[in-house]
Fold ATP synthase gamma chain.
Amino acid sequence: MAVGKEILTKIRSVQNTQKITRAMQMVATSKMRKTQERMRAARPYAEKVRTVMAHLAQANTDLEHPLLQSRDVVKRAGIILMTSDKGLCGGLNVNTLKRFFAQVKDLQDKGIEVDVCCLGQKGLAACQRARLNVVASATQLGDVPKMEKLIGPLTVLFKQYAEGELDALYIVYSRFINTMKQEPATEQLLPLTSEHMVVEHSHSWDYLYEPNALSVMEFLVKRYIESVVFEAMAENMASEQAARMVAMKSATDNAGNTIKQLRLVYNKARQAAITTELSEIVAGAAAV
């Protein structure tokens, strides 16, 4: 029964695949809880830096720092593209890349040139295929967000913006909504708008500065942007693990359904073979 043997081989192959997807689902579930904790822990720091920066800006309205100045004409913009290094996470990277390329097209339609900073192997490969101008990149980010891997690419963008080579800076990443939902998001990092400088307190603030207010503001702006990017990376990693968990659960369930269908086909083929053998025996006995 050659057909039956082929079906049994397929069943064993699907069962082995099912074991792998189930293991990957369990690993992603464990990692997802940890990434969610890191994501929540990253938010208070960024919010506190933003508050202090807003207080400083209100106390010194005459501060003119390159990172705070808005440009009348935007000729070149930078985009930080954040994706995962690995696949098998459903449509997470695909949706993020769709949002990214839509943003690039929108800027190019306005006559704005685009420089890209890629954080993640999938985004870097997509930008290289599209032949976009990649000025900085970081890959192999791991499962834990680390600031030291972000400092290099962000320093390149800060320098370009301060020297007037970039007129705006955006970030595209996957925002974590819940375990079942992650959506691509686009945020403007530079120039800082009035929305970034809103504070809840109505009274004024004053500080003593060392060495001066401009240096303190420069430090705070960079730390704020770094903390926003770090938080976005934490959310992107949480989204990646959640999407991988859902994708692997779906793959495991699909493998189970495939095994059921193959067993049904095998049983039908086996029953057909038995029926054929019985018919041949009966026909032979009748001929005798």
